[in-house]
Amino acid sequence: MLLAAALPLERLERSEPHMGTLVRITVESQNPSRAEAAMTKAFARIRELDLRLSNYRPDSEVNRFDSARVSADLRRPLELSMRLARETDGAFDPTQTALFDLWRTARRARQLPSAVEIAAARAQGYRNLKAGTRLDLGGIAKGYAADEAVRVMRAAGERRVLVAVSGDLVAGDGRAWRIGLESVAETIELRRAGVSTSGATEQYLEIGGKRYSHIVDPRTGMGLTNGVVASVKASSGMLADALATVVCLLGAGEGVRFARRYGARVWAR
After folding, report:
1. What is the DSSP string of 33-86?
2. The dihedral sign for the CA sequence 243, 245, 249, 254
3. pLDDT tens-digit profile of 197-231?
4. Who has the most CB within 10 Å: 17, 123, 150, 151?
C-alpha cells in the first residue's frame, strides 16, 4: 500500500488597515486557495469588531453603550476589563474615556493638560458604569480581535496561523511560531496563545525632559512616567493585551506579580 506524500506548506501573508493600525495575517497551508478565503473571512471579522468596539466611531456600540443590551462582542472584553478595574483599584479602567481623550489632545498639542481639566475628566469611574457611559477598550480590543481572527481561521480549516494587530500577536495550532520581543531582546515560541507588548516606546508626550506615556493612570490622572515596557504571554490575546497594560500601570514589581496570578509569563524592564 502506497501512502500519499504530504503536501508541502505554503506561506501566505496579507495585511489590511483596521482598528487604527495595520493588521497582518500569516498562514502556512497545504491549500492556498482555502487559506486565502479564510483570511478574507478573518479580516471581515476584524472589521466587524472595529465597528462595534472603536470609540473613534460615533455609531459604534461602545459609544452607544446600553447596559441592558450588550452584544457578546462587547460583553467579553468589557467583563474582563471591569474585573481588572476592580482588582487594580481602578488603575485599568475602561470608563475613563474623557481622561484618555484629554491626553490624546495633549499629545497632539504637545502641552500638558491642566489640573482642572484632569479633575473634570476623572469624574467618571468604573464604579459608576451605566447606560450612556462612554467606554474605551483600547487596552484590550486589539488582542480580542486577534483571538477572533485566529478562531475564524481555525473554523475554516487553517490552524497554522499568526495574527498581528499592532503589538498584539495571537498564534493558532501546529508548530510554534518564533517571535522576537524587541523590547527585551528575547525570542519566544508562541502556540495557541497570545503575546502583547506595551509601554512608552512610540506614543508619548515629552515636556521638560520628562516623558509621559500614552498609558494614563486613572488613579492619578497622569500619563505614566515610570518608563516600564512590558511583554506578556497569556492564554489569549485579549488577556495578554490587557495584562501588558496592567504591568505598566502597576510597575514592574507589582505588575509582574499580578499578571502571574493569571498564569501569564512576563518580561518587564
Report:
1. HHHHHHHHHHHHHHHHHHHHH-TTSTTSSGGG--TTS--HHHHHHHHHHHHHHH
2. positive
3. 999 777 899 999 999 999 999 999 999 999 999 99
4. 150
Name the residue range of residue 114's domain: 10-268
Cell of 255: 505588575
| Euclidean distance between CA atoms 226 and 13, whole angstroms | 37
Q: CA-CA distance, 264 to 258, in Å (whole number)?
A: 9
CATH number of the domain enclosing 175? 3.10.520.10
Question: Residue 143 in contact with residue 239, Cβ under 8 Å?
Answer: yes
Portion of the chain with pLDDT greater than 90, in percent: 88
What is the DSSP track for 4-16?
Answer: PPPPPPEEEEEEE
Please report whether residue 5 resides in a domain.
no
> Across the chain, what does the average pLDDT equal?
94
Q: What's the angle, vertex CA 199, arms to CA 194 and CA 201, rounded to 5?
A: 115
Alpha-carbon torsion 80, 240, 233, 222, what sign?
Answer: negative
User: What is the value of pTM for the model shown?
Assistant: 0.94
The backbone torsions φ and ψ at residue 265, rounded to the nearest 5 degrees and listed phi first, read: -105, 135
Residue-wise pLDDT for 10-48, tens only, equals 999 999 999 999 999 999 999 999 999 999 999 999 999
Residue 179 maps to a domain: yes
The dihedral region occupied by 126, where left means phi > 0, alpha psi between -120 and 50, and beta the remainder, is alpha
pLDDT-above-70 percentage for the chain: 98
